[in-house]
Predict the 3D structure of the following.
Amino acid sequence: MKGYSIPLTFQAGVQFMMRQNRATVKLLQTPCSYLWRRVRRCSLILAALLTGLAAGEFLIASSLEAAASSAFEARSGEQWMQDGSTAYQRGDFEQAAASWNEAARRFEAERNASRRSEALVQLAQAYRSLGQYRDALKYLEAALALAEASGDRLQTAIAMNSIGDIHIATGPAETAQKYLQEALRLAKDLDNRRLAAIVLNNLGNLASAEKKYPEALSLYKESAASAQSAKSTAVAVRATINAAAASIHNKQIKEAKALLDEAAEQIKPLESSQDKAMGLMNIGLSYFNLRPNFPDAKDALLLLAHRNLSEAASVAEAIGDRRAASYAWGHLGRLYELEDRYTESLQLTRRATFAAQQSNVPESLYRWEWQTGRLLAKLGNADEAINAYRRAVRTLQAIRPELSVSYGAPQESFRETVGPVYFELVDLLLRRAASLQSADQVAPYLIEARESVELFKAAELRDYFRDDCVDTALAKVTKLDTLAQTAVVIYPIILPNRTELLISLPNGLKRYPIDVDAETLTQEVRNFRRRLEKRTTREYLPHAQKLYDWLIRPLEADLASSAIDTLVFVPDGALRTVPMAALHDGKQFLIAKYALGITPSLNLSDPRPIKREGMKVLAVGVTESVQGYPPLPNVSQELKALQTLLGSTTLVDRSFLAANFETKLKEEQFSVVHVASHGEFGNDVDNTFLLTFDDKLSLDRLNQMVGVFRFRDDPLELLTLSACDTAAGDDRAALGLAGMAIKAGARSALATLWNISDQATVDLVLDFYRELKNPATSRAVALQRAQLKLIENPRYEHPGYWSAFLMINNWL
């Protein structure tokens, strides 16, 4: 065991045990579970045996433990409640949660439903502050049930307010609105102006999150007025600060400055607390954000920002809140960074990092590690900068579930908020690789750069799907390029000032820098996508050729010298919204040269050839107009032809009910599920679904249905969606489409970027399945041949008809 060696001498063993017993008494006076105490007792027994303690010494140890346990049990629920509040105010949310959990347990034993409800609300607040929203919601729902059962209207209003507050962060907004409005009604009925002020502030936060800034401003002002009448200055300060932020968003700059000045005066007489520290911090940051709007007062506003942040740090230090101190010092460091005072910024940032480490606050720690990396890079210390970025990425990986929520502010994309940490590290790694001559020295940096992007891609998919499907996939797959003998993996990395291509050639990974910045590339991709869908013109062609020149032509010599037949792209950003098959070299489309596949991540692909023996197909679809969607008249022909070709089981129209579909999947083992119905992929998983005759099938529901195959010998080999649609220019929607196979637990998916309600779909799909019956043909090659056959038809040669089909994830 680390820290001491065995065997110990008898005397040393006794001394060690006595130290352990004193520590045990201290530990047992803090909140903990019975399980923990049982484990602690087992460790005492084991240590006694290892050190040769006689029965007498062991009895002493047991007596000490019993005394500590007795003291633990003697503490009342009220004492645990007070301990929780004390811990929370110093930023120790884990300790607060433990205390409030113990208080709830005591109140339950006393059958005190009202106080137990209060304890559960406080416990939920601790979990919310830790970013554990699901756990917080679970305790709040229990608290609400207790309050309603006991007829406690005040506690019911408090619980409803807290539930609404959670839903501001997690959605949906309608649920947040419902709970908050009911909480406000109850608070007003009870004439509890302080609670009404708190609820009004939360309603303002909800309006701000939806960018309804005039409404938010009105709610914040009403909250502040209600709080002042209730003599609750702390709540009034919070609402006034929020009103200032809403005014900034609403371009009411002078009013914002006046509100901040008011909040700064109101907060001065408040006693030191976490609320005061966080309030001062927000005032300081808001003053700094006002600087661009007051050119003549920039220095004065900078001084106000610095003063308030410094005072926030002092308050946090005074109450022992290392968490708040970490944020205050870190934000001060950011102020200095923006003023190009890098050395001073680095000192403050290191202080913030140390405070975050002391208080175990990964959600702030990654920020300051990232800030440290930026500063070191600007100071010319590339090696230390890379190490700092590595630490930031490692920290981010540990807190990824909490990053998918955005409270009280408009939802920003995961790429905008977190992506820079990963891509700035990748930039440094690629620059270092470019500075080296030896291939042996270059290779590790290229591999690490690609793996860093892989970490981001996995985190981005987690954020989109908001569940553990990505981790499930990571646990069971093999990296795609390790089995790709006849394929080349093309890995574009889009950086602000350039694009880099990493290609897995037979002799190793090779880097191709492309002098095209992110904005230029994205604009070209957007133009290409819009024109591809215009099937009556050839306006797409110049864009198809330009993208080919950027993404493929630099690789032509290496591709020609390799015995490959397939290109597998791992597209990023805007590149996910366009089909690579339609890139054009001036003479022919890329699909004429290579079969093509895409995968959202190398580490999430499961590269195994499809099993043809005993292949069973379930084909389902909708032909009629249902739920406001237009009819798909060609679907009937598509499903009938599949039945003839593959002997598929068919559910169409009124037989394609969600319940029927689920039953069929549970009762039989299918290799392929073919869905010929409307499917929409939005920028959020909540706006993504497949249409059955009677319902909209969410990805979560589809995952539950298809997921049964995970527990059988073979998962689903192929999920085909022949009428999907993703909005042009919506990178997040395309991310959802690319991750479809992973979410559904299928090895691969054949899906469309846009809906082609035409005979072309029927022809392409049938040709794909005919080719797939050949054991020597991979999924990607089967799609390539089907697309080439369609190109030969003058009616369908335009890429708008055939290029929308993508082979996603496993291409073999």
The radius of gyration is 31 Å. The CA atoms of residues 399 and 663 lie 38 Å apart. The domain at 617-809 is CATH 3.40.50.1460 (Rossmann fold). Confidence is low (pLDDT under 50) at residues 1-64.
